[in-house]
Model the fold of this input.
Amino acid sequence: MALIVQKYGGTSVGTVERIKAVASKVAAARERGDGMVVVVSAMSGETNRLVSLAKDICKRPDPRELDVLLSTGEQVTIALLSMALQEIGCPARSYTGAQVHILTDSAHSKARIRDIDDARVRADLDAGRVVVIAGFQGVDESGNITTLGRGGSDTTAVAMAAALKADECQIFTDVDGVYTTDPRVEPKARKLDRITFEEMLEMASLGSKVLQIRSVEFAGKYNVPLRVLSSFEEGEGTLITFEDECMEEAKISGIAFSRDEAKLTIRGVPDQPGVAYSILGPISGANIEVDMIVQNIAEDNTTDFTFTVSRNDFPKALEILKETAQVLGAREAEGDDAIVKISLVGVGMRSHAGIASKMFETLAKEGINIRMISTSEIKISVVVDEKYLELGVRSLHDAFDLAAESSE
Ligand code: ASP
Ligand code: MG
Done:
C-alpha cells in the first residue's frame, strides 16, 4: 500500500460540483488500496474575498486577527470535501491545521512550519479513513492560529508528506504540469515529464508560478517526490525529483522570465572600500530585495554600479539611491522599470560549455540588446527591454529546441 498526499488548489475545489469530482478521485485511489491524505485550499476567490472584508474594516488589520479570518476559507473546504467523501461511502475525517498540530513560528501571515505531530493522522489512516487537512494554516506555541503565506497549501501538503514519509506528494492544480516556458508567451512550450528540485526552484522564483517556492525547498530538503498534475485532465503531470543520469543530457530544461523587474544605476561613485555597502545598505535597510548586481571596472578612480529590484519597490529604491548619490558625491542616479529578465535554466548546463554564447548569439540575431547578464551553476539570466520579452523567449525556445520531445 502506498501512502499518497494529494493537494487540491482553489480552482479544483471552486464549486460544490468540483468538490464532488475531487471526492470521487480520492475515493477511487483509496479503493485501489492507497492510504490517502488530502490537503485543500480555500474555494477559489475565497481568500481574496476574506482579505477584502478585513480591508473594509481597517487599512491594516491586526495580523493575528487576519490569520483567524483567512484560515476559515480552508475550514469550509475540508468539511465539504469530507461530507462529499462520506456521501459516496468513503470514510473520511477533516482537520484544521491546529487540530493536527501543524506547529509553526508566530510570524503571522508568513509562518514557517516547525513540527507536525502525525499521530492523529496515522490513527485515521490505520482505521481506513481518508484524512482531509486544511492547507495554509497552523498554530503557534501559544495556540494562536497562523497562516503560511499565499499559496501556502502547497507547503502544508509537502510538509505533511515529509512528516508521514509519504511515497509521493501530488499537487493537483489547473495546469497539467510544469512547462518549458509559459505557454501564453510561447504556444509551442512543452510539458516536462521531470524536472529537478533545483531547476524547479529557479523556474518558480523566476516567475512560473505553479508552486509556492517554499514547498519546493521543503520537498528538496526532505526528499519528498513531488508531482504537479491537472485536476481536470488525465495525465502523469511533471515529477519534481533529484537529478538522474538521463537528465544530464538535457542542457536546458526551461526558460523562465519575470516582468516584475526594474534596474537602478548610480554613476561616478568613488572606487574605494565600503562603497557597495553604502549603496546597498540603505536599500536593504528599507526591506527592498536586490537581485542582480553589477559593478563596473573603475576608470579615473570612479565606478558605476547597477542593480535590479522588483518593480513595486522601484520608486522607493530610486528615492533612496538619489539620496545616497548626494551623500557619496556621485555623478548621477537613474533607473528604468521597463525591463524584464529572461533566464535559461538547466542542470545539464554545468557540464556543457557554449550555452551562454548560443544565448547571446540568438538574442543578437533578433537585434535584442542585453542590458545585464548574470550566471549561476544552473542558470543564465539577461535583462532586456520589456518590449522584447515575447520575441526573446520565443527565439530562445526555438534555438534550444525546447519544443522537441527528444531534447528532454
Ligand atoms: N487559500 C490560500 C491562498 O489563496 C492558500 C492556498 O490556496 O494555497 O493563497
Ligand atoms: Mg496555488
Notes: The pocket of magnesium ion (ligand 2) is lined by residues 9, 151 (CB under 6 Å). Residues 63-87 form the longest helix (25 residues).
